[in-house]
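Please, structure for the following, as tokens.
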Amino acid sequence: MRGQRYYQADEAAISVLAQSSNILVEDNLTILTPSEPRDTALIFYPGAKVEAIAYLPLLSQICQSGITCILVEMPFHMAILDANAAEEVFAAFPEIQHWYLAGHSMGGAMASKFAEDHADSVDGLILLGAYLYGNYPPEDTLTVYGSLNQSVEEKIDYTENIVEIQGGNHAQFGNYGLQKGDLPATITAQEQQRQTVAAILQFIRRRQHT
């Protein structure tokens, strides 16, 4: 964390941005468009004080399944300052029929709040290293956390759609290094993200076939 301002994306994340022809940056949005897009999109809120592009390795894998991914860069890297950012994303993509809202850590809390307030517009909520904040239905929510992130586990008071990644920690949903107060993971970031992507895609497929 250089300058104690925010956690910066590592080389793996930067290389995804540099080498991918399907990524477009427009103002505060980084848009990942699949080669064969469907009518489904995922909006992602980053964790607090984390550079948004740190989540590109995770989102690029989701995009490969045909899901458009829209990564929101928050003011001062704090999702709490623009919890309603998804509203303008909805308006910019009228062709999308199915919206999923996702977020990491504080980004997950703010995504949870937005989903509660806009339940008719959101098909599902995906929380990474976060837990439900508000009254959005647990049955419409996927919660993924690392087994070394016990502070999240202690806050989960529901049982639906919970995935615990053994050996995972809080930070490795993104690519920005070890976070202050976090335990070192015993699996790689690539493995934690691989399992996370598998859980997300299974959750979305299941919801779209019910």
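The mean pLDDT is 95. Residues 2-208 form a domain with the Rossmann fold fold (CATH 3.40.50.1820).
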